[in-house]
Amino acid sequence: MSSPSNTLFLILLLVILISSTSSTTSGEDLHKQALTLAKSGDLQGSLKYFRGAVRDEPTNHKWVNDLGVTEMRVGELKKAGTRFLTSLHLSPSYSRALKNVQQLQTFVSPSEWVHLYAEWLEADPGHGFIEGVEPRPLSTGQRHKTKNLPVVTYESLLDPGNETVAEFILGAHPYILVGAMDHWDISAFSESSLVSEFGDARVDYYPQGMKEESVHPFFSDLRDALKNFEDPDGLYDTVDASSRNTYIQWNVRAAEWERLRLIGMDLPPMFRTDDSWISSCFSPLDRVDEFLVKTHWRMVLIGQTGAGMFNHKDTLQSTSFQAQVKGRKRWHLCSSEQDRNMYKAGDINAFNPDYEKFPNALDLDCFDDVVESGMMVYYPANYWHQTRNLDPFTMSVSGTLVTDGNNEPISKEFDRECDTSKGVRIFNPEEKLCEGLNKCKEIWRMKSWKEDMAADVEKVVRMRKGASEL
Ligand SMILES: [Fe+2]
Question: How far is Cα 274 from Cα 85, in angstroms, rounded to an integer?
Fold first, then answer.
């Protein structure tokens, strides 16, 4: 029989357990809290609660308007404008939002207004002009030249006699590869199996996406980062988490990469050429993971609709592939011939450039395409790239490669990284890591790139032939 003190202890334990498992706060509660703070004059403090409420219920036109009012009052005018437009988009007859548009227009110039209206229109294909809201942008969206990426089939890449595609494999042209993911076990990449297999993996987590260069990540494990997709727990003091465009960047370590392979990631031989030199250079020095993580060599990227990476070129001059596991991703790719039309990394939103501010962008001639689940995209060194997820749960696996064409510039980049007098660019150099990189440079210099690739491809073709004859 339990004593009264034991019973009391059990009740207390139960209360603690219940309160620690019910951490989800509803949008209703967040909105109430936001109003209380705003009424007490703490506008800045109320913002994160308004934003949390809107993330929880993005179609609540009143809450979206309330958020806009608060942003207008603290001087975040551009954001306020997009909230009022969204509120009217959700409820065209909502007169309060219309009045707020008119008030906002007394604080911004007509050209600023038109620009924010154009940005808002472009941000979501479902957005359109709103009745009664003037002035309207005369044009929006891309006006520079773009074309689709070449599409190459995996079968044709594996055909050594096919000279027209031979230059694509790890060459100087970007392309979409189809048919190379037919043997992947996609079920291994479901949210639940990722949590059970890799829940403790450390990830960088961007609750507001990576559309601007200045955003900084939160650090968390994959389990919590995925949970925060739907329920941005704790709210964020310093970032605007109102939109569902969270981006998770998981820098995959060696053991995790191996495990991904074991459970369903079946990479073609041309995208596995780094395995042997990574092991030769860094395993004896116990620096494999340090190399992989510091260079973002291999990543799993998980994001919501609208999340993406701002326009940039990879500093390391590396070549990359990305396998689209779930959802669709839009890619804008430009060669370095377009440098003068691109300004600085992050200046241009390639999907909707501000041609007034960056007039050279009108002369851009680039690729713009959508990579769908089951396709891979390849782009060579020195290519500008910008991405945007088009579905609520989008996932891709990316890898970096050293090739025949880029091993010399990469070697120079690593020399620069390891020269401490030049300051930190990508990573803090460490003696053993640089020792490993020196070994890599030697391996790359001596490597017979074309012959090794041909042998790898031949091996796969033989294996496939053997399998079909069984
Ligand atoms: Fe990149």
Answer: 49
